[in-house]
UniProtKB/TrEMBL annotation:
Molecular function per GO: phosphatase activity
SUPFAM superfamilies reported for this sequence: Galactose-binding domain-like, PP2C-like
Keyword Coiled coil: yes
Pfam families to which the protein is assigned, alphabetical: 7TMR-DISM_7TM, SpoIIE
Annotated protein name in UniProt: Serine phosphatase RsbU, regulator of sigma subunit
Record carries keyword Coiled coil: yes
Residue ranges the record marks as coiled coil: 390-446
Amino acid sequence: MKSKFSKIRCIAAAFTFVFISAVFLTSCKAKKEDVKIDLTQGWTYSLVENAGSEDFTAFDNAKLGNLETLVPKQYGFIWLKKTFTVPEELKNQNLGVYLGRISIADETFVNGSYIGGEGKCPPDEFSAWNTARFYTISQAILNSGENEILIKIWVDAEGSVVSNPFISTVDTARKAASREAFWNSKINLFFAFLMLVIAAYHLMLFFKNKNEKENRMFAFINILSALYLSVFFYGELPFAFDSKVSFLFFQKVFSNSLPFFICYMVISFIITFVHSTEKKAVTYIRLAFLILPVAIILFAPDYRILRSMRWTFMMLIPPMLYLFFVIIRALVKKEKDAVTLLFGFSPLLVIFLIDIIVHNILKIYSFPYITSIGWQLVIVSLLFILANRFVNSRRQVEELNRTLENKVEERTKELSESNSKLSEANNQLELTNNQLIDAKKKADRDLKLAANVQNSFYNPSLPHFKNWDVVYQFKPAAGVSGDLYDFFHDGKELQGVGLFDVSGHGIASGLVTMLAKNVIDRKFRECANLPFSRVVSEIDRQITEDKGDIENYLTGVLLRIQGNQVELINAGHPKVFIRTAKNGRCYPVEPKEPVEKNGIIGFGGLKQEFKALKFKMQKGDSIILYTDCLNESENKEGEQFTEARIAAAFEDAGIGSAKSKLDYVLNRFYKFTEGTIVKDDLTVIVLQYNP
């Protein structure tokens, strides 16, 4: 960090030295003060061409910087006139007049003789606002007494004479104009040329390594910046720039729109450079801060309206604040070069705000635009960062080249040793793999046999029960299922239904399933005259005894049916729901008052209690039983189907048959889990009372 600060100080010192040297060189004065005729006061104006002396009106010469306030609708010509007398020290020689910068265009006369002009008036209006006015006054047109200087100025939303105009020797006036041109145009031309050189260099680097997108983005930033600076130096170009495009189009694109493109590109560059991420919503907001002001600017019908849109530059403030947020966030994350970025952009923000306040709010047009100088600091900082990264990369490459041969030799030796070990391990793996293949074949045979035996326990079809419409869906996840269901009946008289889920998977759970089915069927019939809770207790005792040390246990629901009266015991199983035909609502079958839950079946070592619930079925009422696969299966977002969704689907199934209700629930389930794999055994039973 210390070295990084020292590098930043070196850059700042170098830039300061260049800045001070330029100021010194451009502000040197002769030891003897030159004689000057002051033109800052004493002006009169007229709005009438070829006006007589009586048509000129005195005005506050502080308004020389805001002449548009004197012109109706801020559109038209204004004539400025001032008289002067040539002092003895300046007689008998050609003189020079320095008028500073004039907006928009001017034609200047002395004693009625044309001495020069800059810019274009309508219909081909083009401003020469940043061109320092220097004209030569021939001694032949000067009077020995009073002389008159007349300036015809075209005003379109802006009109001004800025700086401190004067008449003096040709050399003195030319030097003043040169200083003005240097600070307001030539220095920007130099910076623009430098930016184009930097852009060409970084485009070359990008084409050599297209993975480094920062070089391409930095090149585009320099190209856009150079185009924007043309607003300040186009008067210095050797060709007639104003003959290529209209002044209105030039101002819309180069002066008013390019800052928004530059700001957008700089933020994108910084985000890429510090390896940050940006949410799509933020990107869209940034695009809005680019597109909206540019669209407003491009639709301006004339220059007066365009000038009134200077408020659009305020829309650069939120993106610039976001830029500093990105840099500070990178600084908190201790990203490399974040400190340099912060120091490089901080002066720009201050200078930009100064320009906005001075030119757009206070309207002090004589003050030069200094944002371009602050932007040069940013370009220098970014150039230094990219150069520093490039140098570090080169050092790493050189270091790798120096040590590559040793590392290759070491790696070759290590790889040779590893290959020998891998060969031995491969032989062992082949042996183990063959053993595993044989074991898998045997396991597959055993699993297939167990599945066939288990399937033989279930009747492929059910009889048409008296007073009951019964349907079910049984879908094992693998060959052997841990789900167990049974229907107890005497001919067509339905006496009970059971649905159980054995813990675990594979052959062990399948064997427990077959064991439990036999026990449940036998105990249900043998204990038909016993209380229902006693029946389930006997089933629990017998299964626990018969399975011995096997750890698998059962959860489940058992129903005993006599006519329309149903007894139900839920042993640790998901909720059972009943849908009433009377109102079409779905309710869980559970005690009205909170009680201790029933135990689970086959879990040895614990004293289990099983309490029965009794209720009566009305015509059209239906019951749904299911294993936990239905309520615990997940969709692609990781959400479970849940008992609440089961109840909602069962309620929405309508007043149709038991099969239509089952199909409706399963369709909603499969639609919910679409795109995922159902990993557990699925069993669903629907009973509907239809006397």
